[in-house]
């Protein structure tokens, strides 16, 4: 593995800091922003972009899980149920992703981020506003969420929380706080499994990914802090706009290359 020259290294560290900041601002791991950037800006194929983005995501997600668990303790059976099923599903679907035709994988990713953007744009009410939601996780339902979230983590290298959180709040009626804690219990271990699987298939650019991850560690907290002072509606719409623009850009790029 070769290393970047100092000017390039400083540029990549700055890029990692920007991705970490926006990941903290929008409450995401950063992969959903990083993957389109790697494809458009660095010319990576879909699987390589997803694997490299996981290098950025894993430390942020593990730190977030640890910090969240300090304040929001959950029953260990529920955590084990969602974490184990998600990690196992991630391993299976990541094996598929690194072998799948890159054009097919690219279109799946494009449609996923387009749907995420449109859903965020149309969302009118935060599910946490429902005071009747249960704050006690039901262990029996956790494997369902784990399989769905793990499928996204393995196939796309991200998105487990974007799948799990709305499912936990709207279908299983958990509060937003509990849903986010359970989502972190899902994505933190499954992201490690996804990174390991992509790395074993040589679908990770460590030369780029490691300095990006290092740069992001210093700015995630700043993004989170600023997010608390900004209107939720404006943040949601900004995030939705970024996703929709990225999706259409990637779709147009795919059509142009064919």
Please describe the topology of this protein.
Blueprint lengths: L5 H21 L4 H12 L3 H26 L4 H22 L4 H21 L19 H15 L3 H12 L4 H25 L5 H12 L2 H8 L4 H26 L1
Helix pairs in contact: 1-9, 1-10, 2-3, 2-11, 3-8, 3-9, 4-6, 4-8, 5-11, 6-7, 6-8, 7-8
The description of the largest β-sheet is:
none
- Average pLDDT over all residues: 86
Our Rg estimate from Cα atoms comes to 17 Å
Number of helices: 11
Question: Structural class given helices, strands, pairing?
Answer: mainly alpha
Instruction: Summarize the helix and strand pattern as letters.
Output: HHHHHHHHHHH
Descriptive notes:
The structure is a single chain. By secondary structure, the chain is mainly α. The protein has helices spanning 6-26, 31-42, 46-71, 76-97, 102-122, 142-156, 160-171, 176-200, 206-217, 220-227, 232-257. The chain is globular, with a radius of gyration of 17 Å. α5 runs antiparallel to α11. The protein has one domain (6-257). The protein contains eleven helices and no strands.
Give the key terms:
about 260 residues; 11 helices; mainly alpha; globular; about 0% strand
What's this, in brief?
This protein has 258 residues and is mostly helical. The chain has helices at 6-26, 31-42, 46-71, 76-97, 102-122, 142-156, 160-171, 176-200, 206-217, 220-227, 232-257.
């Amino acid at each position: 593995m070769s290393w970047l020259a100092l000017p390039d290294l400083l540029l990549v560290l700055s890029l990692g800091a920007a991705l970490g900041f926006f990941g903290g601002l929008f409450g995401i791991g950063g992969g959903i922003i990083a993957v389109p950037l790697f494809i458009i800006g660095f010319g990576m194929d879909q699987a390589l972009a997803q694997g490299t983005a996981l290098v950025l995501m894993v430390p942020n997600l593990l730190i977030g899980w640890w910090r969240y668990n300090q304040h929001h303790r959950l029953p260990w059976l529920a955590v084990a149920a969602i974490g184990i099923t998600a990690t196992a599903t991630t391993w299976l679907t990541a094996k598929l992703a690194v072998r799948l035709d890159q054009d097919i994988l690219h279109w799946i990713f494009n449609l996923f981020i387009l749907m995420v953007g449109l859903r965020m744009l149309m969302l009118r009410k935060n599910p946490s506003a429902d005071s009747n939601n249960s704050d006690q996780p039901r262990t029996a339902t956790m494997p369902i969420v784990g399989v769905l979230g793990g499928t996204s983590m393995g196939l796309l290298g991200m998105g487990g929380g974007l799948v799990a959180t709305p499912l936990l709040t709207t279908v299983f009626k958990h509060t937003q706080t509990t849903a986010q804690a359970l989502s972190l219990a899902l994505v933190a271990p499954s992201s490690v499994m996804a990174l390991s699987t992509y790395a074993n298939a040589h679908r990770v650019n460590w030369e780029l990914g490691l300095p990006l991850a290092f740069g992001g560690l210093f700015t995630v907290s700043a993004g989170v802090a600023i997010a608390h002072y900004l209107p939720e509606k404006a943040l949601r719409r900004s995030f939705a706009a970024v996703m929709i623009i990225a999706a259409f850009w990637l779709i147009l790029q795919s059509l142009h290359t064919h």
